Amino acid sequence: MHLMREVLKITDMLCQALQKKTQDIVNTVKLVASTKHLLQDMRDNGWENFIKKVSNFCATHDVQIPNMSDVYILRGGRARRQPNQFSNEHYFRVDIFLVAIDTQLYEINIKFSEEVMVFLTLMSTLVPKNGFRAFDASEICRLVETYYPEDFT
Question: Are 130 and 26 in contact (CB under 8 A)?
């Protein structure tokens, strides 16, 4: 529950922006990049902070916290039936925490691949906002050369 809340806090602004009927390409590109960055930062540096929040919640609500250094035992099974023995911390960090974040990053990377992000960034130069303030002739040439080479020879 806490993990989903943390992930949804990070992805919420991007989801809200993508659901609007009028899309601001420049803002969307920035939101995608920042969402990817925040998720990656949570993946790389967020475990300790996350487990502290969960532990505090459990202590406040009298929920038993498993000893993280104990051997993790598969549900409904015994430790001797497990192919590998690993700690509770390893299970919760690797198999739950990292997998959940990796799944979100994977989904974002599928929908917003590097090629799509480059294309959206190039297209943002054509946004008429502020009198084509973002207009850049070199970026237009790059867009044409990359995506329409046969049409402009």
Answer: no
